[in-house]
Amino acid sequence: MEPERLSSFTLFEGLSADELVACATPFQEIVVLSDHNVTREGDAAYAFFIVLDGELDVHREFQRIRTLHPGDFFGEIGLETSGPRTAHVAARGRVKLAKLMAWDYRTMIEQHPAIRDRIAAVIADRP
Question: I want to staple 41 with a disulfide (CB 3.0 to 4.6 A). Which of 88, 93, 120, 123 is the partner?
Fold first, then answer.
């Protein structure tokens, strides 16, 4: 993934060029088609995702709780708690995501406390 793409997201504000390169390198860009389930509530958590293009719906217990847009992220709660996914996330159309595997996510938040703090603040504000 191109570091410049990450720099456009609030989550990565204030990182140096070298830090952006280090964060961007393990991300994989993936395309998800309409109605595809990216995560399923109750499944094992294995990755963190950032929305690059498109929209996704988030459901908990069969109720839509929010819509994700470019710059939003998901998948962190299961990684933070080592528990199952807490929500079902499905594409509303063609969606491009940046995917970061669990071990790379842990490295990123350990090396960049500001990113960990921003993620924690978003989690605290969610329903």
Answer: 88
Q: Give 50's Cβ-side CA count (13 Å radius).
A: 22
Return the CATH number at 79: 2.60.120.10
Whether 83 contacts 54, CB under 8 Å? no
Supply 108's token pair.
Answer: 């990123």
How many domains does one find in the chain?
1
- Are residues 57 and 67 in contact, defined by beta-carbon separation less than 8 angstroms? yes
Q: Which of 102, 74, 72, 105 is nearest to 88 (CA)?
A: 74
Q: In this model, does residue 127 exceed pLDDT 90?
A: no
User: Does residue 37 fall inside a structural domain?
Assistant: yes
On whether the pTM is more than 0.85, the answer is yes
Is residue 31 situated within a structural domain?
A: yes
The domain of 100 spans 27-104
